[in-house]
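Hello,

I think I submitted the iron/sulfur cluster job twice by accident. Can you confirm which output corresponds to this input? Input:
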Amino acid sequence: MKRLYIKTFGCQMNENDTEKVFILLGDSYVKTDNPEEADLVLINTCSVREKPEHKLYSEIGRYRLLKSKRPDLLLGVMGCVAQQEGERLLQRFPYLDLILGTQGFYRIKEALQTIENKGSPVIFNQLRDDFTIPLTLPNKEPPRRVKAFITIMQGCDNFCTYCVVPYVRGRENSRSPEDIIEEAEHLVKKCGVREITLLGQNVNSYGKKHKGYVDFADLLNLLSQIEELWRIRFTTSHPKDLSEKLVRTIAENPKVCKHIHLPLQAGSNRTLKRMNRKYTKEEYLEKVNLLRAHCPEIAITTDLIVGFPGESEEDFNETLEMMEKVRFQEVFSFKYSHRPFTVASKLGEEIPEDIKEERLTKVHKLQESITESILKAYLGKEVEVLVEGRSEKDLGKLTGRITTNIVVNFTAPRLDLIGSLVKVKIEEAGKHSLKGKYVETLKC
Ligand code: 5AD
Ligand code: SF4
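Support: Only one job matched these inputs. Its output is below.
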């Protein structure tokens, strides 16, 4: 059997797409972790910011060397850069065999067949507005695992002015609830999965464009009826679409984890308007209050962009003020980076690199102290951890997460607890994770 190596960059949706390629090629290729022995190498790419896009170009160079030693090796690019650049990639790297966009990769078998028949490179990067993700279930007994992703929708119609996603993932489209439930049941019953993370660019607008589909809150309730499924997570939510019904569902459904990733992006109303985020900072704070009123223990994490074109010092200070007001558990912060096609890339008023850097450092410093105090509050408490595996740093310890998505590394008398829900007593708080010791097993 032939061997397939995939190098994945970017978000969880890309990781999920990589898994699907393995499923799609299930009978003809086995997975390898060593590109040197692969017959097909794919690079799954991200173009959300400039940096990950550049990584692709250095990565292609590496595999070119392999291909010059072994001309039979097939080399392809998939994901957002493949979608964005298409034919241009082939002009720049004529030795590529495959270019598969964010919808096109589902046709990988057909693409490989075409290469075999015609010997010429294949590009599948048309975006169809009515595209929906096909159901791809592993046909063989897959390896057992504790966590899995399910992409429930893809694409985005929001057109935030900095963001390339609507151009590389196309229009927002939701999968049918039946397909999602079938995939979830398969993962739980056949693969032993206990925790599912639902993925989409804007999961809380799930189903809105489709007559007869349930809404996101009801989708969560339907999935929670799968008995052996213990936990449901989801990402990403857009503040403008966060309904009271969803907030109540998060609070009341015990299987829905008490964590929401709710990107704020910026703290000043002027910047939010220029970003086309469709909410004000006051409206964002109202959503935070609603979440905390119904679910006081909920963890809120966010994304922030610093140095958006025209962002003044006052604008930026309002971002810091919002961080103090909300007290996010974790912040993922990025320097603004120009993306092709986007409105913001034509705004001018660019912020110099050193100022972006300075602002990013201020965000990091402030957040460090907030995260630290949130983690310290767990000291001495007992928490429920779904055990995912051995701790990478210390193989004698186990690792897992609590409902609020904090990683806990802990000592245990036995290491065969993977896949169990256990009680852990927290003894130490680190910068981004907790340490503790096993108390008892709650479910296995
Ligand atoms: N520059 C910097 N950060 C960006 N993001 C999206 N587009 C850009 C850009 N052009 C960030 C946003 C988003 C996260 C996934 O990436 O914060 O929420
Ligand atoms: Fe990009 Fe905005 Fe859509 Fe998120 S909501 S994917 S930031 S356009």
